[in-house]
């Protein structure tokens, strides 16, 4: 595998979990990893509580937008080495054929936008999603990529998703 590694986080709406994961990876994974996100049915906007959580964590929000996974299946798109679904509905959908046969895994996280009605409940739900994704990304970043073959890496990223 060549560096930098490109990682695509998928969710149905690409408005919350996948956006959080993209921003976390782009901060913590530099210079060896680049994060991207997309959705099967993009919402067309980033959830305001996702942006709020990223700002509270000191992560940049510029350049984050809700986009279709078709963007990354087109010729000329960055080639992905990893594709992680972060919601159960996206994991169950038939994904595009990704050039280069990236390693895939499911890292399901409950949708924080559906876990509360009050501002306090939504703030807590987005923090919980942020923390869970951050832990998984930290575990992923700690893998000795240069020492593992593709099958071993696949087993490890699937294990991370079950934690």
Model regions low in confidence, pLDDT < 50 over at least 5 residues: none
Q: How many structural domains are formed by the residues?
A: 1
Q: Whole-Å distance between the termini?
A: 25 Å
Report the average pLDDT across residues. 90
Number of helices: 5
The main pleated sheet reads as: 4 strands, parallel
Please give the number of β-strands. 4
Range of strand content: 5-15%
- Give the C-level CATH assignment: Alpha Beta
Strand order of the largest sheet: 2-1-3-4
CATH topology: Rossmann fold
Structural class of the helix and strand makeup?
Answer: alpha/beta
Q: Write the CATH architecture name.
A: 3-Layer(aba) Sandwich
Radius of gyration: 15 Å
Describe this structure in words.
With 163 residues, the protein is of the alpha/beta class. It has a single domain (5-158), classed as Response regulator (Rossmann fold), CATH 3.40.50. Helices cover 37% and strands 13% of the residues. It has helices spanning 17-28, 48-56, 88-92, 119-141, 150-161; strands at 5-11, 33-39, 82-85, 103-106. It has a 4-stranded parallel beta sheet with strand order 2-1-3-4. Helix 1 (17-28) packs parallel to helix 2 (48-56), helix 1 packs across helix 4 (119-141) and helix 2 crosses helix 4. The longest helix is centred in the C-terminal third of the chain and has 23 residues, at 119-141. It is globular and about 45 Å long. The two termini are 25 Å apart. The mean pLDDT is 90.
